[in-house]
């Protein structure tokens, strides 16, 4: 059973930065498709950023140029560096991982990010 654990959320002022980390046991973070999603109150969960096993990345338009998803091989995590944060980035952020041969999604418990204006 794959377990994902997110960390790094918190309260930050607009314009600030946060770095989220997704940790897991086993190899899924290095061989799977890893995504960060977020869900704001009253809104549907949306994909924020994705990294493939070949390290190709994809971002939702609203975070392009501000967020970066990457693998930290030394820590065995997939991180989301978030810069120039805006109040509209406030949400619970979830890590999602899928092995490419099953595409079964695994989810973490989420970490709260709150950006004050």
Could you characterize what this model shows?
The protein has 117 residues and is mainly beta. The protein is built from one helix and eleven strands; from the N terminus they run βββαββββββββ. Helices cover 3% and strands 51% of the residues. Strands 2, 4, 5, 6, 9, 10 and 11 form a seven-stranded mixed sheet that branches. 31% of the residues are buried. The model has no long low-confidence stretch (mean pLDDT 95).
Characteristics of this structure?
single chain, 117 residues, seven-stranded mixed β-sheet, four-stranded antiparallel β-sheet, 11 strands, 3% helix
Biggest beta sheet summary: 7 strands, mixed
Beta-strand residue fraction: over 45%
Q: What is the helix/strand order?
A: EEEHEEEEEEEE
Number of H- or I-type helical stretches: 1
Which runs of at least 5 residues are low in confidence (pLDDT < 50)?
none
Assembly status = single chain
Q: What average pLDDT do the residues reach? A: 95
- The residue fraction in helices comes out at under 10%
Spatial shape: globular
């Amino acid at each position: 059973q794959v377990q994902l654990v997110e960390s790094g959320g918190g309260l930050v002022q607009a314009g600030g930065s946060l770095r989220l980390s997704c940790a897991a046991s086993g190899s899924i973070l290095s061989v799977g498709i890893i995504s960060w999603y977020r869900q704001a109150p009253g809104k549907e969960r949306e994909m924020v950023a994705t990294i493939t096993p070949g390290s190709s990345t994809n971002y939702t338009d609203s975070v392009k140029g501000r967020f970066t998803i990457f693998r930290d091989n030394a820590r065995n995590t997939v991180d989301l560096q978030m810069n120039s944060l805006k109040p509209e980035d406030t949400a619970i952020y979830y890590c999602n991982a899928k092995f490419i041969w099953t595409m079964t999604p695994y989810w973490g418990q989420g970490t709260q990010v709150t950006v004050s204006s």
